[in-house]
Each structure stands twice: as structure tokens, then as C-alpha cells.
Specification:
Chain A is mostly helical. Chain A has 13 helices and no strands. In chain A, helix 8 crosses helix 9. At the A-B interface, helix 1, helix 3, helix 4, helix 5 and helix 7 of A face helix 2, helix 4, helix 5, helix 6 and helix 7 of B.
Chain lengths: 285, 302
């Protein structure tokens, strides 16, 4: 009797709070989705309709004109090919090099480990602004400014990735497994390849998504180093189109929607891995 | 590792094991040397020269640095960057903490969906986001003005051409883009807090607010430190948001230090001067980043 009397008012108080919570979360979700929905919808509108008021949620008349014009007038697929190849090559190399280095830092004791780790970790605090000018000069002087080199090679061993892989390796690979593999006569590299790598799979997925998205979306360095339009990535192409005379909003919107598709697809497919992998490093410092 | 296992393995394996870690971490250090250490060295040298990119750099000592001291544009870019960074730490970070707390509510339905939606902006290219925001905040035809006009009867805010409003739009963009990203870190941290701690506090009569401050927050210290340092270093380098949204304008009211460097080097061909600004930036960011890292104990080896 006493217990139920105590419970009822509390439950009644909790319910409106819950409703408020859901309302807030949904409202917030709208703040995130509305601009994107508006962009998708507007990409199917006629140019003059994009700024119409009141804004139409549904394009009327709906047209593929923006997409057709973009694809006819701009080498959009070429940009896409460039972006995805750079992103894929970087991702494969990044995953390999970071997991190797992360394993090295997590599972070996060696002279200078502490210092080397500190150097690696503090490189995270080096701002790109200090590197961008001299690196551009070096790359240009040495004739290395071909985009497939300049956009990929300097960035395939990011400290953040190594840190993430070290955290994950430390938490999920027991020393006994490694010792067992060594007793079986495995070389260190073989141990890494056939024992460690399979166990790291979730973290590798996370790192792969992170690396793909980073490379796919990056703007500043390509802007500096890529000068020939034939090597433009998607962000560069859109930026050029956006900055050009007459601001062809409608075309850029269509391009933005198309460009977002691979990024969102990769993210939605691998979101669980990405989120748990990203946070693994941070939660247990 | 264990002594017995080491004793059992033969000498070749032992030697291999001594060298293996160096081999494994060497790619990072090779790339780090070629693409960070050498450029920084070259940058320091360039910063002491005057050079337009052709011919050879002319050594001018510390002139670039004294010029930076008196350069109002550089001062403005420092001020703006400090403003963005302060905003990131004082508004974005607490906002994401609150959202994470809301998402951590017991028995919440659709948690993963909410988390997914909030995370979405980080996945998109900044050029996409900046374009959309540019159109939405357009001073004449933008959606925001149109909605305000309809709701309150005035909608003539020149969002992108008024110095203060332009800064506001940039930080709104920062808020929109990064909050969801930080939220997943806080949420993961909260989910790692042992349930017993909350239950014990509840038994002691602590309400939700009290539990948040006495249980959740102290437990989140490592996550918070990690996020704060990451956000500090990232926002101090902010480039894309103001570059794409306002090109640094109106005037120089949204110019950031990274944009200042970019403009000096690649639009004005003053490579030496740009390098000097980069070096100043490096000293400030690196010092702050390391200071914050060691104060919070981020990234220590065990």
C-alpha cells in the first residue's frame, strides 16, 4: 500500500519528462535533417524555385534539369573517380600502416618506446598551417605534385589512427595468443598477419571508414596542390563551380547531393564499427 | 612479455622480436620526417626570407615576424580564431555533453537512430555543408530570413555581410557540424560508467542532477580531456567553414589564421610571410595542445 502510493506519483512525474525528452531529441533531429532534406529537395527544383517563398518541401515541378546539366557540362564522374580512387588507395595503406604501428606500440617493449610514442602523439598538435606552405614548395620542387602521390603518400600514417589501433590492440589481443603463435614458429610479421589482424577486424573497419571519409572530403590540401582541372576531386570541382561567375547554385546542389551519396553509404553501412572504434581510444585513455 | 616464452623461443626469433617493433612503427616515422619535420624546418627557414615562389628566397632575418606584429589582418585572424576556439570549448562541448546525457536516458528508444542523425554532418564534405548554409542564410532570399519574415515580420538580417552576424553564422555552422561528433564520445564514456555507481548514488538519495555532477562528470574526465584537446587543436586550425561560407569577409571579420596563411601564400604569393604566420600558429597551437594534454594526462603510455 505504502509502496504503491509512493510509486504512483513518481511514475506520473516521469512521463511528461520522457515526452519532453523525446520532443527535444526529435526537434534536434529535425535541425540536423531539415537543411539536408531542403538541399535534396531543392536539387530537383528549377533554379528560380530554389528561393521561392514559402519554401516548398516537395519540388513542384520536379525536374532532373540540374542533374542533367551538371553531368553534361561538368566532368563530374571524373571528379568522382579521382576522389574515390584517392580515398580507396589511402584507406588501404592507412589501415595497414596504422594497425602495424599500433601493434608495435601496444605489444612490444623496446628502447625509446616512450619517447617515440610521445613524439607520435604530439604530432597530433602540429597545425597544418605550418606545413602547408613549405610542403607545397617541397612537393613542387621535387616534381612530386602528381595528385596520386601528393594527395595520398604524406597522409597514410596518421597519428590518430595509430593511437586508435594501439588502444584497441591493447584491449583486445591477449599476450598468450602471441606467445602461442611464436612457439608455433611464426615470424613476427606472420604473427601480425595471421593472428593479430583478424582479431582487429572491428577496429580496422572503424579506421577504414574514418580514413575514407577524411580523404574523400578533404579540401585545403587538394586546393593547394592540385592545379590541373583534369585531376580535380569532387570537393575541388564543386568549389570551382561554386566560386565561378554566376554562382550556379542549382548545379552545385545537384553535385553536392551526388557527392554525399558514397560518404553516407559508407557511413550507414559501417556506422556501428566506426562509432565504437572511434570512441574505444578516448574512453579508456 | 613472459620470461618463459622468451626462453623457449630460439635466438633468431629473439633477435627478430627485438627489431620487429622498430620495423612496424618505422613507416610513421619516415613519413613524419619527410612530410612534417622537414617541412617545419623548411618553413622556419622560409619565414626568414622574402619569396614570391620564383628565383631564390631573399634572406631578410626577422622582418616577417615584426611585420606580423603590426599587421592588423593577422591580429584580426588571431582574434577570430580565438573566438571560434572559445566557442567550440565553451558552447559546442557542453552542448554535446547535454545531448549525450539525454541519449543516455535509461530505456530510450531509437537511441541509435538519433545518434546516427546527429553524427551525419561530420560525414559530409564541408563544401556541401557550407553551400547549404550559404543558401539558407542568404541575406536576400535565404530560408532563415524568409521564415523570420513570416513569423516575426522582419527578415532583413544580412547574415553573411554583417561582421557580427557573419561570425555568428560561422559558429552556428561549427556547432551544427561538430556537436553530434563529440556526442558519440561522451555517450560512449557515459555507457562505460559502471551502473553500480549510479545505483549507489540513487540509494543515497541523489537526484538526476546531483548524479550528473557527482557521478557522471568525474567519470568522464578522460573522455572530456581527449575531446577538449582534439577540439582545441582542430578549431584553432579552422579553415573550411569561414573560407567557404564568407571567404573571410565581410572585410576580414571571419578570417581565421589558417585562411590568413592560405591567402598570403597562394593568393598573394608572399610565401615567406605566410610561412612566418604558420610558424607563429605552430608555436601557439603546439604549446596549448601539449599543455592541455599534459594537464589532463591525455595519451600517456598506460
Amino acid at each position: 500500500m505504502n509502496a504503491t502510493a509512493a510509486r504512483t506519483p513518481r511514475r506520473r512525474r516521469v512521463r511528461p519528462a520522457r515526452a519532453g525528452l523525446y520532443a527535444t531529441l526529435v526537434l534536434l533531429a529535425l535541425v540536423y535533417l531539415a537543411p539536408l532534406a531542403w538541399a535534396v529537395s531543392s536539387s530537383f527544383k528549377e533554379r528560380s524555385e530554389i528561393f521561392a517563398f514559402p519554401p516548398k518541401l516537395w519540388p513542384d515541378p520536379a525536374t532532373l534539369f540540374n542533374y542533367a546539366t551538371l553531368l553534361a557540362e561538368q566532368p563530374f564522374w571524373r571528379w568522382m573517380l579521382m576522389s574515390t580512387s584517392v580515398a580507396l588507395i589511402s584507406t588501404v595503406a592507412t589501415v595497414l600502416l596504422c594497425s602495424l604501428a599500433g601493434f608495435g606500440f601496444a605489444k612490444y617493449e623496446f628502447k625509446g618506446k616512450r619517447l617515440l610514442f610521445d613524439v607520435m602523439f604530439s604530432s597530433l598538435a602540429i597545425p597544418f598551417a605550418v606545413i602547408v606552405v613549405p610542403l607545397f614548395v617541397l612537393v613542387a620542387k621535387l616534381g612530386l605534385s602528381h595528385p596520386l602521390f601528393a594527395l595520398v603518400v604524406p597522409w597514410v600514417a596518421p597519428a590518430f589512427g595509430i593511437f586508435m589501433m594501439r588502444q584497441y590492440t591493447e584491449q583486445s589481443i591477449p599476450d598468450e595468443i602471441l606467445d602461442a603463435a611464436r612457439i608455433d614458429g611464426c615470424s613476427e610479421l606472420r604473427t601480425f598477419r595471421s593472428v593479430v589482424l583478424p582479431l582487429l577486424r572491428p577496429a580496422l573497419g572503424a579506421l577504414a571508414v574514418w580514413s575514407f571519409l577524411n580523404t574523400y572530403n578533404t579540401l585545403l590540401w587538394p586546393l593547394v596542390v592540385v592545379s590541373e582541372p583534369e585531376y580535380y576531386t569532387v570537393p575541388l570541382g564543386l568549389q570551382a563551380l561554386f566560386g565561378a561567375e554566376g554562382r550556379q547554385y542549382n548545379l552545385v546542389l545537384a553535385g553536392a547531393v551526388l557527392a554525399a551519396i558514397p560518404a553516407i553509404a559508407v557511413f550507414v553501412l559501417l556506422r556501428k564499427q566506426l562509432i565504437s572504434g572511434l570512441t574505444a581510444g578516448a574512453v579508456k585513455s | 612479455m613472459t620470461a618463459t616464452a622468451a626462453a623457449r623461443s630460439d635466438r633468431a626469433q629473439n633477435r627478430q622480436r627485438r627489431w620487429a617493433p622498430y620495423l612496424f612503427i618505422s613507416p610513421f616515422f619516415i613519413l613524419f620526417t619527410c612530410f612534417m619535420v622537414v617541412p617545419i624546418g623548411a618553413g622556419v627557414y622560409l619565414s626568414l626570407t622574402r619569396w614570391a615562389g620564383l628565383g631564390s628566397p631573399e634572406f631578410i632575418g626577422l622582418d616577417n615576424y615584426t611585420r606580423l606584429l603590426g599587421d592588423q589582418s593577422f591580429g584580426a585572424s588571431l582574434g577570430n580564431t580565438a573566438f571560434y576556439t572559445a566557442f567550440a570549448l565553451l558552447v559546442v562541448l557542453p552542448a554535446s555533453l547535454l545531448i549525450a546525457q539525454a541519449l543516455d536516458a535509461r530505456g530510450l528508444k531509437l537511441r541509435d537512430l538519433f545518434r546516427l542523425v546527429y553524427f551525419l554532418p561530420v560525414v559530409l564534405s564541408p563544401i556541401i555543408i557550407a553551400l547549404i548554409f550559404g543558401l539558407i542564410f542568404d541575406g536576400e532570399y535565404g530560408l532563415v530570413n524568409a521564415v523570420m519574415e513570416a513569423l516575426f515580420g522582419f527578415g532583413g538580417v544580412s547574415w553573411l555581410t554583417d561582421p557580427w552576424w557573419a561570425r555568428v553564422v560561422v559558429v552556428v555552422l561549427v556547432l551544427w557540424r561538430w556537436t553530434g561528433y563529440l556526442t558519440i564520445f561522451f555517450l560512449a564514456g557515459m555507457q562505460a560508467v559502471p551502473r553500480e555507481l549510479h545505483e549507489a548514488a540513487e540509494v543515497d538519495g541523489a537526484g538526476p542532477v546531483r548524479r550528473f555532477f557527482s557521478v557522471t562528470l568525474p567519470q568522464l574526465r578522460p573522455v572530456t580531456a581527449f575531446i577538449a584537446v582534439t577540439m582545441l587543436v582542430n578549431t584553432a586550425q579552422i579553415f573550411e567553414e569561414p573560407f567557404l561560407l564568407t571567404q573571410g569577409g565581410p572585410g576580414e571579420s571571419t578570417l581565421s589564421v589558417s585562411m590568413f596563411v592560405y591567402r598570403a601564400a597562394f593568393q598573394r604569393q608572399e610565401l615567406g610571410y605566410a610561412a612566418a604566420a604558420g610558424v607563429v600558429m605552430f608555436v601557439i597551437v603546439f604549446a596549448l595542445g601539449r599543455l592541455a594534454s599534459s594537464a589532463f594526462g591525455v595519451g600517456r603510455t598506460r
